[in-house]
Design goal:
It is a single chain. By secondary structure, the protein is an all-alpha fold. The chain folds into 2 domains: about 45 residues, no CATH class; about 100 residues, Cytochrome c-like domain (Cytochrome Bc1 Complex, Chain D, domain 2). About 50% of the residues lie in helices and about 0% in strands. It has 6 helices and no strands. Helix 5 packs across helix 6. The protein is elongated and about 85 Å long. Bound molecules: heme C (HEC). The site of heme C (HEC) has 25 residues, from helix 4 and helix 5.
Amino acid sequence: MRSEHSPTPPQTHLRPQRYKVNARKNISPWLAMAFITLPILASCERPEPEQMRANLRLPSPNFVADAKRGGDLFQANCARCHGEGVRGTREGPPLVHKIYRPGHHADLSFHLAVRHGVRQHHWNFGNMTPIDRLTPEDAGHIIAYVRQKQRAAGVE
Ligand code: HEC
């Protein structure tokens, strides 16, 4: 009778079971290693919340938006296209429109619009160019102003 540890190949009818057992034995250390190392790697690569804000160029968490200041900044930088009282012009859409309500265009989309510009997609005014000269805080003030105008127009 053949011993358990014999180097000769096993009987054909024994093969499937043996290979299954061996495969499981070989893969488990790798699985264990992946379970241990992947979360560590993931946590190393995830930037700190502060770093994420800086990367996205968002105002710091203790920033307090001032809608009045936002109004002046809007007038100087956005009104040319988005109009008096954010009601739009022939160059750009009214931001008091319901598609720009907070639930559909969150503050982040305003920050991205100011920083990167906007490719024409909702209207036929053409693209919006980035407004480079504004800081994330400037954009935050402008957003507060636009949200105030939206609320006044019943767009919430
Ligand atoms: C040169 C004209 C122009 C100026 C200046 C301009 N915009 Fe725009 N903006 C546009 C146009 C045009 C669109 C619409 C693009 C579309 O959706 O078709 C737009 C779209 C947007 C949107 C919507 C973004 C989205 O994700 O759909 C936001 C928010 C916005 N503008 C904010 C601003 C703010 C804030 C300023 C001032 C700091 C500003 N814009 C200045 C032309 C302008």
